[in-house]
Amino acid sequence: MLNIRQVRKVFNAGTVNEKIALQEINLTMAPGDFITVIGSNGAGKSTLMNIISGGYLPDQGTIEIDGKNVTKLAEHQRAAFIGRVFQDPMAGTAPNMTIEENLAIAYARGHRRKLALGVNAKKRKIFQEQLALLDQGLENRLKTKVGFLSGGQRQALSLLMATFTQPKILLLDEHTAALDPKRAQLIVDLTVKIVEKNKLTTLMVTHNMEQALTMGNRLLMMHEGRIILDLPQEKKQQMTTKDLLQAFEQARGGEAFAEDRFILA
Ligand SMILES: Nc1ncnc2c1ncn2[C@@H]1O[C@H](COP(=O)(O)OP(=O)(O)OP(=O)(O)O)[C@@H](O)[C@H]1O
């Protein structure tokens, strides 16, 4: 579903601020793969997400999604087949628009010929059915402006909007990090439910080691622009957070994680 070959991304090339954010990255994801990505600060996790979404174009290498070479496609040209949820609950939704207006935008995004953004009875019914899956009572609040929702409810709505039209790839960029533990757990549960129900190919960045171990079927560790560990389900399901820290320290040649903002549980 995703095939990244020899991708390199350098910021401020040729200046004193030159930073190699991604170094010859290779990554293949099979349809339905759910990969968690963990790594030290500045390891290149967000850059990898942006390279996939089209936010940044690589300096070198190729990106294929569902067999199509998208390497040179701009972000808006990939939007129809990529869903993304950001860390900031404010980022994925428009606060001054109602829940149904936000959903209408997400609904139109996935259709080749842009449909009218209006909401008719048929669409409203679809929206209500989908919102009911979130278990937040939002199906009865279609006319509520999104700015009035809690952070957790906005993140649940962002998740629904990102997955509404069956994206080829779902990108989750620390999407529970800004929430309190109870709301974060709710979004974790919802993520697993939506990803499994729709069999979505998913890449999720997290600083929470427990999440990285328990969610998904594969775990990647990044460091200094490289993927330094790639653990399959059989390996990661036997590991504790302590084992994971040890494995990462080994992969980094014994260097400790003291400076990083890892959450162990
Ligand atoms: N737009 C940019 N301009 C210049 N440098 C950048 C830019 N974006 C990222 N970088 C640099 O590239 C490197 C990788 O950054 P990136 O944000 O991908 O790391 P990350 O793994 O997501 O880190 P964190 O966990 O701290 O968010 C860092 O050194 C960062 O400072």
UniProtKB/TrEMBL annotation:
Lineage of the organism: Bacteria, Bacillati, Bacillota, Bacilli, Bacillales
Regions that span the bilayer: none
Location relative to the cell: Cell membrane
GO cellular component: plasma membrane
Name by which UniProt lists this protein: ABC transport system ATP-binding protein
ABC transporter domain mapped to chain residues: 2-249
Top-level taxon: Bacteria
Annotated GO MF terms: ATP binding; ATP hydrolysis activity
SMART domains membership: AAA
Record's keyword terms, sorted: ATP-binding, Cell membrane, Membrane, Nucleotide-binding, Transport
Protein's membrane topology: Peripheral membrane protein
SUPFAM superfamilies to which the protein is assigned, alphabetical: P-loop containing nucleoside triphosphate hydrolases
Source organism: Brevibacillus fulvus
